What does this fold into?
Amino acid sequence: MKIKGQHYRSVWPIGDDAFGIIDQTRLPHEFVTLTLRSPQDAAHAITSMQTRGAPLIGAVGAYGLALAMRADPSDENLTRIHDMLAETRPTAINLRWALGRMRDALLKRPHTDRSALAWKEAAAIADEDVAMSKAIGEHGLTIIRDLAARKKRKLNILTHCNAGWLATVDYGTALAPIYLAHDAGIDLHVWVDETRPRNQGASLTAFELGSHGVAHTILADNAGGHYMQAGEVDMVIVGTDRVTANGDVANKIGTYLKALAAKDNNVPFYVALPSSTIDWTLADGRDIPIEERSADEILKMTGRLPGGGVATVEIAAPGSPAANPGFDVTPARLVTGFITERGTCAATPEGLSSLFPKA
Ligand code: MRU
It folds into this structure.
């Protein structure tokens, strides 16, 4: 993705002893990059959400483990740092997938080879994520093209949270087809759910779409159903943090309500994902751990002051408690289809295994 004419990925190696990320807590007001030099830096970046999005935190975790191997390639350190990084966020499976892939590859090799191998493996995870996002974009473009041909007018696509290039290494999952459709000249407009409480839609998705020149409008989270009833949403595309073997989908809190409204209004509801987001070990969504986040995210809001500074203010009745589940689970029956790097399929065990037979 280009920012002011310069190409960025969301994570990149710096020499062989550090890596860079974009500080997403500063967007959209400031574009700031950070250099991470230790696994503890990586863990802090993930827990503080300087870096976020399921595929991206997988790649950041992998680079964090690679830094650990540079300092101490022993089995004990490998296990300790693997476990420490895996604890940083519970819902997105990509983090565990990437850390598990790193650990399995490294344990097979002598200590002397581990540092170089870990750096190469982390780079491979990042490169593969880019390739998967690109392929998701192409498969999703086919769906958007068909819909545009049927509707013969501007398409309105709704998305929730941020599943763009900031949530992946590049291109995105849910936003990749939208970028390709826009680049192909398809007339479209995106409804961007603001995505309370952290506002990933208003601050990150809108920033991305604006930078790419895609027409969009930010909506209060509760407005999507109203626009669906009015016939002003042609399709919904969201990303996901974990899909279980039966096709249930964990995604940012509020996704389930959008899927219910889409079903009630016959609006197609697609979920875009790389195969690293599928958790084959869970039969259905009931066992997905849902991250409970700080009440402060509900009780306070951060934004830019008229004078230019950024400030956090209290927005709730003083002393009231708040509950803050970060994710919800959309049952497979509400999902029209999955868009993956291998093509599209039904949100069913058969659909998933038709694309990923040996998994
Ligand atoms: O808590 P976040 O911002 O890391 O959550 C990420 C999401 O839920 C995104 O919506 C996304 O769909 C999954 S990552 C492509």
Q: What stands out?
A: Residues 52-55, 161-163, 167, 173, 200, 238-241, 251-252, 326 surround MRU (CB under 6 Å). Residues 140-355 form a domain with the Rossmann fold fold (CATH 3.40.50.10470). The first strand starts at residue 2 and ends at 3. Residues 138 and 177 are 6 Å apart (CA to CA).
